[in-house]
Amino acid sequence: MKIKIKVAQGLASIIESQKIRNEVFVQEQGIPLDLDLDGCDDNSYHSLAYGNNQVVGTARLTLIENNKAVLARVAVLKDFRGLGIASKIVKELLLQAEKLNVGKIDIYPHEYLKGFYETFDFKYIDKSKVVGNHQLIKMEKILRS
């Protein structure tokens, strides 16, 4: 299956992104909807993965002050996992961050994803909060100082 990745801003990308996140985070993982809908979508870049003529994965890059960003909300539909889609989504947002001259990216993934993000040179900082039954950690990647 051919996967196409598109990075976009705006209402259409937000709607598609939220559909995927609702299915993965809210329905599948039991994360409260209000935690996912945190008000950051409007000011973010959304990476969308297309396969089989539908959106099958997403992630978000939110710019914050001082040339920093937060990469979050990486989600792939269950039937499309194990195909490298999450890696492609993350790579596209890292390229977008470089184009935007972002100096540092923070992420707060599930603890079991530490090794996955280390493949992108994210460094483990510490344990973060527990959301639902999920232990989150803080990691960061320095792009430029």
Q: Can you walk through the features of this model?
A:
This protein has 145 residues and is of the alpha+beta class. The protein has helices at residues 11-28, 33-36, 85-99, 114-118; strands at 4-8, 44-51, 54-64, 68-76, 104-107, 123-131, 134-142. Strands 1-2-3-4-5-7-6 form a 7-stranded mixed beta sheet, sandwiched between helices. A hairpin with a 3-residue loop joins β3 and β4 (68-76). The longest helix has 18 residues, at 11-28. The radius of gyration is 14 Å and the shape is globular.
Give the SSE layout.
Elements: E1 4-8, H1 11-28, H2 33-36, E2 44-51, E3 54-64, E4 68-76, H3 85-99, E5 104-107, H4 114-118, E6 123-131, E7 134-142
The named CATH superfamily: Gcn5-related N-acetyltransferase (GNAT)
Strand order of the largest sheet: 1-2-3-4-5-7-6
N- to C-terminal distance: 39 Å
Beta-strand proportion: 35-45%
Could you tell me the CATH topology label: Aminopeptidase
- Output the number of helix runs: 4
Pattern of helices and strands:
EHHEEEHEHEE
User: Count the strands?
Assistant: 7
Structural class: alpha+beta
Number of domains: 1
Helix content: 25-40%
Integer average pLDDT: 94
CATH class: Alpha Beta
Computed Rg: 14 Å
Q: Which word captures the global form? A: globular
Any idea what the CATH architecture is? 3-Layer(aba) Sandwich
Q: How can the largest sheet be summarized?
A: 7 strands, mixed
Please mark out the parts with pLDDT under 50 across 5 or more consecutive residues, or reply none: none
